[in-house]
Write a structure and sequence with these properties.
The complex is a heterodimer.
Chain A: E1 3-14, E2 17-28, E3 32-36, H1 43-50, E4 58-63, E5 66-67, H2 73-79, E6 81-83, H3 96-102, H4 112-117, H5 120-140, H6 155-168, E7 173-177, H7 185-200, E8 204-208, H8 212-218, E9 221-226, E10 229-234, H9 236-241, H10 243-250
Parallel strand pairs in A: 3-8, 3-9, 6-7, 7-8
Antiparallel strand pairs in A: 1-2, 1-4, 4-5, 9-10
Chain B: H1 2-36, H2 40-63, H3 72-88, H4 94-116, H5 122-141, H6 173-196, H7 198-208, H8 210-215, H9 220-246, H10 256-269, H11 276-291, H12 299-313, H13 318-324, H14 330-342
Helix pairs in contact in B: 2-6, 2-9, 2-10, 2-11, 3-4, 3-5, 3-9, 4-9, 6-9, 7-9, 10-11, 10-12
The chains are: A alpha/beta, B mainly alpha.
Chain lengths: ~260, ~350
């Protein structure tokens, strides 16, 4: 069980505010790691730094032995880290299938000139990738909606579509930002099952989530952040009993 | 559900065949125009429509990657000046100067793009505006470019040898018309090839949602730069054609105001329609002032009125009406105008 992602002494300051403060974090191959913490703990900022949307103030991010700290978002996507967004983020005006198909941007192998001239080989590749997009939709259960514009989908399905697109790149590490937020219990259970199945395919998953029941149910390991610092790390059972974590969420117990 | 899908599929086939028939009719019509219309002035107008169509197409092309450019006329001018200088000063043939000047425009756009495309949104608009002014100023200031008198006596294309036919001489406007048709066709084919390939999907992704596109691995800067460069190439191609067709060029033609006109053509036709929109838009904006016998001095007023009406009534352009399938009920629009006018009046209640 090797370490796939390593975060070393990471700092991210917005002006005077330290959103991430001297954070060390290891993500182990094919685990599901949960990141929890109160609002403003720096969870989403951490995702943004790892996926290259913000440069960190200092520190290092190492993915598969390669330093990716200063790479841009598209280069990081190329290396195999893909992410979903906290707010639903889709290409709203185009169909569900086209959304996922757009995610295959990095998967073309034929010569660029051949692709422009639409030679048989290029068309065949396009057909192949389109088929793979349909497979992802089938795997995630969105096949009946594949010709619908993404904007017409209900919230739960839009979230699933977001994950479908992240799966298309294709990733080795998947960062899910609040995957079950705003879902009803049935949808949540469905999403949990899907995330487990994605892991079965050998994809490592890090997820940020506020739904404690889902996190405890799903994650192999949990890391708790507060004010940009790691305050606890361990198995779900350990985290549930951890005094510091309870304090961070509920405040200190008054001494009698 | 199944039945509905079948019906949908059937409708799509019908739409496609309509499209095909429409395209055939349009082609036949465009080819037979010189047979129908004998007045050379109208042929001249149609040639200008062709040039404006391509320029408006480049505007839409960049708009779809989320960039609003004001530098189109600048690149049009670079193509025109490069071609004029190559033929007048260096004595090159038009048929060599056409691709060479296009290449020169592409190279200039490549280097300028490295500076301009780094910004998006309003920053890009301002930068391209400045770029357009600078280009027009350079043409006007330096002796090489002929100053504000411009370059004149630009040679017409040399006769084009044809297999099994007498060589085509560019003596009247009609060969120019067919050359224009050919160039527009080339640009249309190239642009639809790029749209159909992975580049089109990447551009669309950037235009719809740049952050998401980036997370899927699209290099925003590179794809925007690529779009910027090839649109500049198309504008340069038309510039070279324009220089040799018109015979003389002056720097004021290529200022940013030309681009604003081009944008009106694109928006009037409808920016959702990459090729047909610019064609309809520039056709209407060229022909209506002609038929109304509006003089050149009053034309900007006419254009201004068109723009105001467009923004209020037709934000999707003329072809947007077709897509919606019906005209908007006029009452709604009248109410909108009334509300707009009322917004200028002082509010009675507050006094």
């Amino acid at each position: 069980m090797g370490v796939i992602l390593e975060v070393k002494k990471l700092n991210k300051h917005f002006g005077g505010l330290a959103a991430i403060n001297e954070l060390d974090l290891n993500v182990i191959d094919t685990e599901i790691l949960g990141l929890i913490g109160p609002n403003g703990a720096g969870k989403t900022t951490l995702f943004n730094v790892i996926s290259g949307f913000f440069p960190p103030t200092s520190g290092k991010v190492i993915f598969n032995g390669q330093d990716i700290t200063w790479l841009k978002a598209h280069e990081i996507a190329h290396l195999g880290i893909s992410r979903t967004f906290q707010a639903t983020n889709l290409f709203m005006r185009i169909s569900v299938l086209e959304n996922v198909f757009t995610g295959y941007h990095l998967s073309y192998k034929t010569n660029r000139l051949k692709r422009i001239l639409r030679t048989p080989a290029a068309l065949k590749e396009e057909e192949f990738l389109r088929k793979k997009a349909v497979e992802i939709l089938e795997f995630m259960g969105l096949t009946p909606l594949k010709d619908e514009p993404a904007a017409n989908l209900p919230h739960g399905h839009q979230r699933i579509l977001g994950v479908c697109m992240a799966l298309a790149t294709p990733p080795k590490l998947l960062l899910l930002d609040e995957p079950v937020t705003g879902m009803n219990p049935t949808e949540t259970q469905n999403m949990i099952d899907l995330i487990r199945q994605i892991r079965e395919k050998g994809i490592t998953i890090v997820l940020v989530e506020h739904d404690m029941k889902a996190v405890m149910n799903l994650c192999d390991r949990i890391v708790v952040l507060n004010y940009g610092q790691k305050i606890a790390e361990g198995l779900p059972e350990e985290i549930r009993e951890n005094k510091e974590v309870i304090e961070a969420y509920l405040g200190k117990e008054r001494k009698k | 559900m199944d039945n509905l899908q079948k019906k949908f599929h059937f409708n799509r086939i019908i739409m496609r065949s309509y499209k095909f028939i429409g395209l055939v009719f349009l082609t036949v019509f465009l080819i037979s125009v010189p047979v129908i219309i004998h007045n050379p002035y109208y042929i001249h107008l149609l040639i200008m429509v062709g040039i404006n169509t391509v320029l408006a197409m480049t505007f839409i092309f960049l708009l779809r990657t989320g960039l609003i450019t004001i530098a189109i006329a600048g690149f049009w001018g670079i193509g025109a000046y490069a071609s004029a200088l190559l033929t007048v000063r260096l004595g090159l043939s038009f048929w060599l100067a056409l691709p060479t000047s296009t290449m020169i425009t592409i190279i200039v756009a490549f280097f300028a793009g490295h500076l301009l495309v780094r910004k998006s949104g309003i920053g890009f608009v301002i930068l391209t505006l400045v770029f357009a002014f600078i280009i027009a100023l350079i043409f006007g200031t330096f002796e090489v470019f002929g100053g504000y008198i411009g370059i004149y006596n630009i040679p017409r294309p040399s006769p084009l040898p044809m297999p099994f036919m007498a060589p085509i001489k560019f003596a009247s406007k009609i060969p120019f018309y067919y050359l224009m048709l050919f160039l527009v066709l080339v640009v249309c084919l190239a642009s639809s090839a790029f749209y159909a390939a992975w580049t089109g999907r990447a551009w669309r992704a950037i235009g719809l949602n740049p952050r998401l596109a980036e997370s899927l691995g699209v290099d925003i800067f590179r794809y925007r730069l690529f779009a910027f460069v090839i649109t500049a190439g198309a504008a340069g191609l038309m510039g070279s054609f324009f220089a040799h067709y018109y015979g003389s060029i002056v720097p004021t033609t290529f200022g940013p105001f030309k681009t604003l006109y081009v944008q009106v053509y694109a928006i009037l036709g409808g920016v959702e329609f990459a090729i047909l929109g610019p064609l309809i838009g520039s056709l209407i904006m060229t022909l209506i002032p002609e038929f109304l016998r509006i003089t050149k001095e009053v034309e900007p007023v006419f254009t201004g009125i068109i723009v105001v009406l467009l923004v209020i009534f037709l934000p999707d352009g003329l072809l947007g009406l077709l897509r919606r399938g019906r005209l908007q009920p006029p009452i709604k629009n009248i109410a909108r105008v009334a509300r707009w006018i009322r917004s200028f009046l002082p509010n009675k209640r507050s006094s």
